[in-house]
Amino acid sequence: MKLKQVSIFLENKEGHLLTVIKLLGDNDINIRSINIAENKDFGIVRLILNDSRKALEVLGANGITAKITEIIAVEIDDKPGSLANILEIFHEHKINMEYMYGFIQRYSQKALVVFRVDDINNAIKVLSDNNINVINEKNIDIL
Amino acid sequence: MIWNEKIELLSRDGLKKIQTNSLKKMLKVLYSNSSFYKKKIDEKGIKISEIKTIDDIGKLPFTDKDDIRDNYPFGLFNSPLEEIREIHVSSGTTGHPTVVGYTDDDLQLWSEVMARALCCAGANKGDMIQVSYGYGLFTGGLGLHYGATKMGLTILPMSSGQTKRQLQLMQDFKPKILACTPSYALFLADEAKKMGIDPSKSSWEIGVFGAEPWSKNMRDKIEKMLGLTATDIYGLSEIIGPGVAQECTYKDGLHIFSDVFYPEILDIATGEAVKDGEYGELVITTLNKTGMPLLRYKTRDIVKMTTEICKCGRIMPRISKVKGRTDDMIIVRGINVFPSQIEHVLLNMDETHPHYQIIVTREDNGLDNIEVLVEIKQELFSDEIKVMEVLSSKIKNNIQANLGVGVKVRLVEPATLERSEGKSVRVIDKRTL
Fold first, then answer.
1. Quick one: CATH architecture of A72-142?
2. Parts of chain B belonging to CATH 3.30.300.30
3. Kind plus residue range of the DSSP H or E element containing B340
4. A69 vs B contacts (CB less than 8 Å)
5. ipTM of predicted assembly, 2 dp
């Protein structure tokens, strides 16, 4: 149920993101989702990819600092109040969230939200207990 | 024990008399013998008869490393080549290597000051010394060797390298003194562990470590790891090699043998003498050398000096550990900043590599800014901005506390900072001054 996110350290330099994204494309690695967090000096690019291990190898070989982070992706109804529902569950169970971002999937009417939390195992448990669909790796491949 | 009580415990006035006489004698020889120094002294517009006491030394011209290089190989020798008994060469990063020549008298002088240094470090006659400085063109090995011979120590002339053998013979022969570079001392400790030897139980009780700058932290680490008293020795081949100054067992500054190597500490910007205890460039005059005497040689080493009498009783003034080099120093908002200070901070943080670059810029309003680029460690990279920002501000606070001047810290990707021939380019000064 845990998904792998590839996080990349990028200095704010012209053309830097392009280099990285192109590198992935040239190696047949497909991007499922992308999110960028930045401050004025550097950015952290967070990617969900079809082949995280290969991506890490390719990036490493090109001297790019990257690591794999475990995250969860949750399928929620595309309607008002559904994200609040999830956050409420986290709040109740004192699961601390480091960051989150959403992405749209093509084949269903639902939305996907990625969460990076402090206690991932507990998060998966409480979400499942509340009948929330946590995406597993197989699902992400057919997205 | 004090090797030469007559000199090392001599009153200041007595010392001054010796320095004055030696300087006058030196000037007479240089002026009549050395076309290089005759020209320098004439150009300075001074007559050597105007030098009445050692306190007049400030009127005389300087010598620097370029003078030695420009006169490669033997141009600054002041004795006929057949009277030069030994030649040492140190490689430079740019231009010609630095060549120095020793007459018989110079070798005697070297033995004398090195014997003083070894005694100062706590050696006693009959102790065994493991000399693990390189023997050869480098002055380290032979300098220690001559001093140990003069003092009457039992010498194990290991030279550098052969680490396993060094450790083996240490265990079998139980030498009391280890002489090497501080970094090699640490390496020996690490290798000992790998061989299953507990380095803290080594036979070494005294370390005579030098030939590279090292910090107090490094001393603590070496003393703990090797279970010895680590003393600092200072020297440079231009002056004589090791044996210019040495710490006594109180480890509170290095006694500089000023009866033969006259020290001045000069303000880097003005060239004027600084007050006792203030940092400046160490400038040395070799009062007694005959092979290659040097007048007011600019060492480029930044130290401070105190004339307070040491607990050990020696009158010789004490210089501090080398704080930095004049060629590396940058002045920002009136504060002297040495890359070594930043390196020191980064080395003391587990989170960082000592890979950094300093960029100095000047804003339109005239204010100078220092930006320190620090390479992050792959294993410490976090996907959370917050964690990275905490790291960055921790580095910033540590550097600011050490430098006493505000800096900006920017984390950069590993292995991206410019390196030229393996050596990092530490400072980029973009100011147009």
1. 2-Layer Sandwich (3.30)
2. 330-429
3. helix B339-347
4. 383
5. 0.83
